[in-house]
Write a structure and sequence with these properties.
transmembrane helix; mainly alpha
């Protein structure tokens, strides 16, 4: 009669290429990496020289699709810019909806967008010109 010893684990095949290895010593797997990648301090190069705007103030038709969206529905363009400037902390939809609400209630959403233009200029070191931000967004 043959006896089987149940105290030993059954042998398993080695993991296939590209598959994670089995867990060592019965430890749970590490949690998956989530969130925003973090740059270690001192590893990022900062450019202190102001750069030019990619288009001039009157170069509206250099990007026709963006020109049309901005002309007919500026809340979409504002939402996109706000999401980039806020580094994703506010969504395009939320910022665009707030812009549309301010435009509908007060008619002066340009005051709100003026602050974002100033914030974007500081963040990307862009020159203030050819006139102040509040005049460009009026």
């Amino acid at each position: 009669m043959v006896t089987v010893n149940k105290s030993q684990p059954e042998p398993t095949a080695p993991p296939m290429y590209g598959q994670p290895p089995p867990q060592a010593y019965g430890q749970p797997p590490p949690p998956p990496a989530t969130g925003i990648p973090v740059i270690q301090p001192g590893t990022m190069q900062v450019n202190n020289n102001p750069g030019p705007w990619s288009t001039g103030l009157c170069d509206c038709f250099s990007d026709v699709p963006n020109c049309c969206i901005t002309c007919w529905c500026p809340c979409i363009t504002f939402g996109q810019i706000a999401e980039i400037v806020d580094k994703g902390s506010t969504s395009c939809g939320a910022s665009g909806a707030l812009y549309a609400l301010l435009a509908y209630i007060t008619g002066c959403a340009c005051i709100y967008s003026c602050f974002y233009r100033s914030k974007m200029r500081r963040q990307y070191m862009l020159p203030e010109g050819p006139c102040p931000d509040c005049l460009i967004h009026f």
